[in-house]
Amino acid sequence: MTASAQPPRGDRGPFARRLAAVGAAPVRYARVIQTSRRMPLLQVVKTAVAATLAWIVCLLILPGQIPVFGAVAALIVVQPSVNQTFAKAIERSFGVIVGVVIAYFAGVVFGNPSWLVLAAILISLLTAWALRLGPGGTVQVPISAMLVLSIGAQTPGYAIDRILETFIGAIIAVLVNLAIVPPVRLQPARDAIAALGREVAASLDGLGGLLEKPSTAAERTGALIEVRLLGPMLVRARAELATAEESLLFNPRRSAHRDSLGRDNEILAMLTVLANRVPGMVRALDDHYDESLPQEPTASGLSSELARAAHDLRLLLGLPEPAHQGEGFDEGPALTQPFIVLAPSARHWVLIGSLIEDLRRVHEVIVLAGRSGSATQ
């Protein structure tokens, strides 16, 4: 007698299926509270060190009270970059000062009735809104006012001590972030720029292939779809480079990376021109294509020039040449010979002229970027 077949391990039970049916599956809520990238362990260590030091220093300077404000300030102020840490320190300190001032004057005017805490919270929120504070500052103002009114109303000097605590925690957080290897996020920016350059070069090669031999509508549509990826990739490269620049603001290691960051900005400026121009070239080819286009005398030359441009772009970015396209080019730049244009037919002169002008601009930005790179080395 054989044992009954066991359900596959991936199958969910009836209860799990019912949860999924009503949109209450645990995995769905796990995605809400979890991030795609874990916080770096170094960031956790820096935050823990800053909070611990803030607690100890506040107890030494202001004994008699648990230094909650100082520890919380240190926890909030420590950020991935020095620039963000400075911004959080200012935001946190300003929010505490405003909240304490509101609580102080509210207590002087109205005394200590039970409804005053709620009124102070509402006034604090409106004050933060009027001052155009960010989300962190907007929350910090009512929290400070609420704590001062609810905990420190009977304690002389409580409000001033809490301001000092916050300053101590914020200063310690800034010093810790300066002392413990401030992170420099240059590599993600370079990876995003390299990925964008690789895709631009592939699009130039693909466009040359469409000019060199007959193509189907599906192939041209596929080329259009692929070239549209350049837009999101350009946005991501800009965001990563902006993050890299921010990570170097007020960073002690900024001078060591200033030149390479400037070179990355130049490369991205060149790729921005290409990423905006190449999709238009592919679109023009798709709009004006017919089966006789590959027989144009200039089509073969255009295809070769596009391949040369792709080769020089990879050479400029330090990218490897694809195995199926590496033959026929030396290790040096390929855009070194004049391109002789033969008169196109009346049917294709608009398309050929448009592609030649776009190709001239592509050549121009690649050659200029290569010269700039040679001059800075």
What does this 3D model show about the protein?
- This protein is mainly α.
- The protein has 2 domains: 41-179, no CATH class; 186-376.
- Helix content is 72%, strand content 0%.
- It has 14 helices and no strands.
- α10 runs antiparallel to α12.
- It starts with 13 loop residues before the first helix and ends with a helix.
- Mean pLDDT is 80; it is low at 1-10.
Major sheet attributes: none
Give the count of structural domains: 2
The tally of beta strands, per DSSP, is 0
Alpha-carbon distance between the termini? 79 Å
Structural class: mainly alpha
Nearest-integer average pLDDT: 80
- Percent strand equals under 5%
Order of helices and strands: HHHHHHHHHHHHHH
Briefly characterize the structure.
By secondary structure, this protein is mainly alpha-helical.
Which helices and strands, and how do they pair?
Layout: H1 14-21, H2 26-33, H3 41-61, H4 68-77, H5 82-110, H6 116-130, H7 135-151, H8 158-179, H9 186-212, H10 217-227, H11 230-248, H12 254-287, H13 297-317, H14 349-376
Helix pairs in contact: 3-4, 3-8, 4-8, 5-6, 5-7, 5-8, 6-7, 9-10, 9-11, 9-12, 9-13, 10-12, 11-12, 12-14, 13-14
Features:
14 helices, elongated, 377 residues, mainly alpha, 2 domains
